[in-house]
Specification:
alpha+beta, elongated, about 35% helix, single chain, 2 domains, 3-stranded antiparallel beta sheet
Length: about 140
């Protein structure tokens, strides 16, 4: 399986602008710029897209773990927070924190915690981003 996205950029770093388009066209000429990446401009940025990909991947992986353990979830909601810091190598994504809240009938907290950790460690995006510190808070409701 392969998926693709494209980016186009016009101009210099601080005054230039770009657009992002995904293969599915869910993102279609979505604007991004220095201001959307490092300030509060309108548009998207690579770190936000990584956060969305990680939240989605982890949530699906957790659903798979729970379903395989015969505890299908009612609801799982996850937020991924990406931290970018300046290191000696330049701007670097150093941390990703996953915060998930799940409603799962009849599961014990210890089982939920074990399956959430497996999902965090095993989702393809977590494996890709393993050079960053990835933390998890998992809440069962």
């Amino acid at each position: 399986m392969e998926r693709s996205a494209s980016a186009i950029w016009h101009g210099d770093l601080k005054k230039g602008t770009g657009a992002l388009t995904t293969q599915s066209h869910v993102l279609n000429d979505t604007p991004y710029s220095f201001h959307t990446r490092f300030e509060d401009g309108a548009g998207s940025n690579p770190e936000e897209l990584i956060a969305a990909a990680h939240a989605g991947c982890f949530t699906m992986a957790l659903s798979s773990q729970l379903t395989s353990a015969e505890h299908p979830p009612s609801t799982i909601e996850t937020t991924a927070t990406v931290t970018m810091e300046t290191t000696d190598d330049g701007p670097t994504i150093t941390k990703i924190h996953l915060s998930t809240h799940a409603t799962i009938p009849g599961i014990e907290k210890s089982t939920f915690d074990e399956l959430a950790k497996k999902a965090k460690d095993g989702c393809p995006v977590s494996r890709l981003l393993k050079s960053a510190e990835i933390t998890l808070d998992a809440t069962l409701t």
